[in-house]
Amino acid sequence: MTDTTTAAAGSGSAAGPGARERSRGRFRDRFRDRISLRGWGGVGGMAAVCALTAVTLLPLSRGAGNAVTGPGPGSGSARSAALASPAAAGESCTAPETSLPPSTAGGPNIAEIEKRGKLIVGVDQNSYRWGYRDPVSDDLKGFDIDLARAIAENILGSRDAVIFRAIPTNQRIPALNSDTVDLVVRTMTINCARAEQVAFSTAYFEVGQQVLASKGSDITGYDASLKGKRVCSAEGSTAYEALEKNAFGAVFRDAHDGGPADEDILTVPNQLDCLVRLQEGLADAVVTDNALAAGQAAQDPAVELKGRRFTSEYYGVAAKLGKDDLVRRVNHVLEEYREAAWKKAYRHWLADDLPGISGPPAPKYRQP
Question: 221: which DSSP letter?
């Protein structure tokens, strides 16, 4: 049976309850009665479950690397594998999605995982279709969960040889650098700033930022229609970075963003928290990956994607810098996964909400 634990609650100070925890307590009380709704119950059911879960997670200490800035990667997803030279020291980052060539060889990090008998993976439990906790079975499910199990099976011979640790968006990098997890498989966008802090696999999914709002809203997309609107995003996300660069006059910051006294209304630990704010009238729009937004729209028929996606980004599996043997093994798994297994997972989890995707991005490898 798969072990499932939680780590890194979100965003409150580990030093005790503060304004952020009081805010969460109010949300918890507000949504308590909704958990009994049948099925997902739209956002009222699913978001309430996740909002309650989020406040019970074990906190990781806050530190450097919990929020990053920098440009997203370029666009394109050619179907043939490409080779790219590593950037020389001091050279600007132009292709952060390039990674180490795949290998089945062992190494110290693979050996440690084999000795432990479990792969520890940081995941989401709040993103429908990607990584979410089934309210009936209490199991973690989704596209990212399937990929994490495939990696565990390759290294340890069993899809169940994995410990899932639920981590919020802004704790993905700290969880790796503190060795709390071996890998993060959590809709994590590859970009230059993050590639200086963690090691990425090759890309396994192409996405872009998009706006989510109520169907009756006059918001038309990532444009001037956002002026004066309250826009929610996850702390440490590329959506928040995009708003920092150009918010079109929208209000998107909380007081004390990222600190112990953070109000935690517009800048939240997890993407689904934004959907809660939107449905409760505390936000007018959400900016997030279109892949996540599509899943949120599938939960609540009262919201919809607005306009077009305005970036092109790639998801990758992340490891701690220096764990080259583990990154190479993950890339080997992805080589095998890209065909039948990837397409099977896509059809099962994502095709209904993200139709028309023929396959994953082609891998780009660094020259030896």
Answer: S
CA-CA distances (angstroms) from residue 221 to 10, 16, 104, 188? 28, 39, 45, 23
Alpha carbon separation from 283 to 7, 264, 278 (Å, rounded): 27, 12, 5
Q: Return the CATH superfamily for domain 82-206+314-366.
A: Periplasmic binding protein-like II (3.40.190.10)
Q: What is the pLDDT of residue 71?
A: 27
Assess whether the region 3-60+209-306 and the region 82-206+314-366 belong to the same CATH fold. yes
**pTM: predicted TM-score of the whole model, two decimal places:** 0.77
- Residue 329's pLDDT is what? 99
What are the residue ranges spanned by the domains of the chain?
3-60+209-306, 82-206+314-366
Q: For residue 101, with 0-12 CB atoms within 10 Å meaning exposed, 13-18 middle and 19 or more buried, which class applies?
A: middle
Task: Say what the pLDDT of residue 2 is.
Answer: 58
The CA distance from 133 to 139, in Å, is 5
Walking along the chain (368 residues) 10 residues at a time, the average pLDDT comes out as 51 36 42 32 42 34 27 31 36 87 97 98 95 94 98 98 96 98 98 97 97 97 98 94 97 91 92 93 97 91 96 97 98 96 97 93 91
User: DSSP assignment of 337-348, as one string?
Assistant: HTTHHHHHHIII
Q: Which residues pair with residue 210 across a beta bridge?
A: 288
At 115 the three-state DSSP class reads helix
By three-state DSSP, how is residue 253 classified? coil
Q: Which CATH number fits domain 3-60+209-306: 3.40.190.10, 3.10.180.10, 3.40.1280.10, 3.40.50.2300?
A: 3.40.190.10
Q: Where are the beta strands (DSSP E) in the chain?
A: 3-6, 82-84, 119-123, 126-127, 131-133, 140-141, 162-166, 183-184, 198-207, 209-214, 231-234, 267-268, 285-289, 303-306, 313-320, 364-366
Whole-number Å distance between alpha carbons of 96 and 289: 18
How far apart CA 123 and CA 236 sit, in angstroms, is: 15
Alpha carbons 254 and 166: distance in angstroms, whole number: 24
